[in-house]
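Side project, low priority. Logging it here so it doesn't get lost.
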Amino acid sequence: MITGVNHITLVVAEVPRAVTFYTSILGMSLRAQGPCSAYLESGSLWLCLEQGTPSHRADDSHIALSCTAEDFKTLCARLTDWRQWKTNRSEGASLYLLDPDGHKLELHLGSLESRLAHYRLSPPDGMQVF
């Protein structure tokens, strides 16, 4: 049985540039760094960055990151001119952005329970909430 997310690994073109984005802009803590990889932490999230050649699919696959409402406002202000890949049309405040290597990220205020409560009140066509 799956009990949660263990870690996320992203391939990045330049580890130092990616570390700067995730620490200075998103506020993660750098826990270890070598010439070809780095390990960051934020809450229970363990993020590994590996040097390589990133490639991206043209779909909505992405990583959603949680933050407090206060931090969400701060991050949105900090990321005003950052590259975004989607406009929020779902329950809860979200900002959809690309990291320096084009990985799709979402900063999201909400939880699975808030999303399901929203669907119970306004279910999209064909959606069943269990």
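Brief comment: The chain has one domain: 8-121.
Revisit when time allows.
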